[in-house]
Amino acid sequence: MKALNIKVFIFLVISLFLLSVPFVMQKDKDDGDSFNAGFDKVAVYYGKTAFGNEICMCKSYDLDMEKSDKEGSGMVVNAGRWYLFLPYSTDTVGSYKCKLPKGTELEIDGHIYRSDSEISTSLQDAKIRLLDRRSNVLCEGLLSVCVADGLNSVFLTTSKQDSEAVFTDRYALINAVMITTDTKGQQDKMIHCITGGRGGSTWASCPKRPLRINLSDDIELFGMSPSSKYALIANYMDPSNLKDAIVYKAADMIGMKYSPQFRHVNLYVNGEYAGLYLLSTRINTRGGSVDFEHNLDYANKIANRVLLTDVPKSEILDEKTRDEIKYSLLDKDPEDITGSYLMEFDLEGRPQEEQYVNSWFNTENKTVVINSPQYASKEETFYIADYVRQVEKAVYSEDGINHDTGLSYNDYLDVESWSTMCLMQDFFALQDYSDGSLFMYKLAGDDKIYGGPIWDYDKSMTDDFYSDERFAYNDCIELGGWYGQLSKFSDVSEASKTVYRDKLSPALEDIIDDYLPKEMSAIAPSMKMDDVRWSHNEGDEEDRAQEVYTWLVNRKLFFDNVLSK
Hints:
The chain is of the alpha+beta class. 31% of the residues lie in helices and 26% in strands. Strand 20 and strand 21 (367-372) form a beta hairpin. Residues 7-34 and 63-76 have low confidence and may be disordered.
């Protein structure tokens, strides 16, 4: 019996030892995790549990990854100044709670916080230290909390290996989960999306970069019409964050076809605050703001009986004009190739550099990209290129007539839409008045080419371009490109004036009196956060918004005065 008891005792000792091994190993693993942990792994969340709305600590743009010389020496790292950028106040969503790396604690001004502990949102330059389970200091620094409220938010989460590519690889197509929350912080949507870079000069020259969002189906976001193609506009070149919104609002109010819908949002990518963005439907026929009744993308798919993806391209010289032209190599064409086409004036030489530009052509004065159909065949590209070149000869002639065909610009163009675009460019003092982001379209069975939709007005509404006393129709300035040529014709200029008196002026009155003050107030807290995140030194955010407001009021007074005579 005694021998049996000894055996039982030995068995229990061995069993306890074996059971303890995983915990010892896990402890060592946790210690290893916590040793490698830094403030970039610290996050907060609101609600009962973190559901993809985690907000990570991050730095201001000009203080990116500031560290001491002692890093790597085993000594404490001075991690500099950190921020928590919160999209909602505690009055709106209740408390925020910590989410910490395993085996760590967060010390703030001497107080210890563990995962799921509530954290104050009023911290400014608080002393913070990240501690491991043995109270060793992993890193230390300062923490300030910035709080916004009253806007919708978008949270994008990618895989770890794709996280860096979101803002570094413009052409990457990245799978992500998108969570949208309304102005009260309540989850609205949780959907799969494809994200990636977009934009030309803004992507190349700005630290805060724009993104695209592609959805598998048309889905309504924040009350906008259901779409599958959205843009996240960074507005880094527009310190007011209001210019695109004002123009898109005005365009919609005066009935400009296919005008983009939009909402201001706070954007978070993998928990890190990316800034105040304008979420907008894109100018796109495949799930964007443009909805053609006869869509050549669909017709091309039917004709070729395949799902068109990554179609081979050919880039040649047009034998008639000796201009470069690029098209897609399709086996068959639909019976009707007269439309619909969505086109965009672009900078000379840029389409050759763009990975996603499948079809384009040159005219005598311009470079034109074919946005739709996405894969324009040789016949489609040559058809629309020849037609646009005919139109341009009429537009650029002194009398407005193409003497090869005997047709005038009135025969080729829808004068109302082009005169409205002329007016919008002139009134809002658009700097990109000749090339880039200027769209036109031709519908199937319709000989007219239409001006629009409107897009990209972040470089507008500034006296740096021309003052509020300058006006295209009193010969003080000369618009460039097709719009400059058209504004010289009296029927176009008179039509622009009529559109202003009957439509734009009343719309601007409503925008100035109602929409703009409300939107300025709504985005003000988020503008403050965006300023800190991106180290804007453009002056007080209220002053920047007020500057645009004042410019708009003065510009309207000037136009009202000039056009009343």
